[in-house]
Amino acid sequence: MSPRSTAWGAYREIATALRERIAGGEFAPGAALPSEADLCEQYAVARNTLRRALDQLAADGLIVTHPGRGRVVADAQGGAGGSVPQYRAVAAQLRALIDSGDLAPGDPLPSESALAQSHGVSRGTARHALAELEGAGLVEAVHGRGRFVRQRQ
Q: Residue 96 is part of a domain; what is its CATH number?
C-alpha cells in the first residue's frame, strides 16, 4: 500500500510539499496561503486531510491562522504570535526529514551534540527538540544506542 493510499500518507505528503513550497520561497513570510478549497483541489484531498496537514504546519510554527484573514506564513520570528522556540524549529526540521523519507524508520537521528552544533543551539535545546519528537511518537530512544525513527503504525 503506497503512503498516498491512506489519509495518513496524504496528510504527511501535503505537509511536506507545503513545507518545501514555504522553504523555497513560493510563500513568503506574511503571505497568505491559498484557501482550503484551492489547496484541496490542488492536492485532490478532502478538507479534513488538508486540515491535518495545515495543523501540523501550525504546530511546527511555519504558519499562523488569523481569524477572517486565513492562514499566513510565519516570519522568521514566528509570525504574529511571538517567536517560535528554538527547539520547535529544530524539531520541525527533523520532522520534515522524517516526513519526506530522508530519515526512514530505523534510521538513527543525530546526537544531541551534533544537533546542537549543526543548528547553533545548546544541547538542552537539542534534547528538548528530540523529546518533542519522542512525545509525538516519531522517534524512540534506545538506552546506550541513541534515538531512532520509529516505524509508523
A: 1.10.10.10
pLDDT at 153: 67
- Both 75 and 10 in one domain: the answer is yes
d(CA 108, CA 31): 36
**pTM > 0.85: yes or no:** no
Supply the DSSP symbol for 80.
G
pLDDT digit string, tens, across residues 65-98: 877 678 888 875 544 444 567 788 888 889 888 8
Name the nearest CA neighbour of 127 among 83, 94, 99: 94
Domain boundary among 80, 103, 123: 80
- For residue range 15-37, what is the model confidence (pLDDT) as tens digits? 999 988 888 778 877 788 999 99
Q: Are 76 and 96 in the same domain? A: no
Q: What are phi and psi for residue 20, nearest 5 degrees?
A: -65, -40
> Residue 72 forms beta bridges with which residues?
32, 64
- Whether residues 25 and 89 fall in one domain: no
d(CA 126, CA 140): 15
Q: Is the dihedral of CA 116, 117, 119, 121 positive or negative?
A: positive
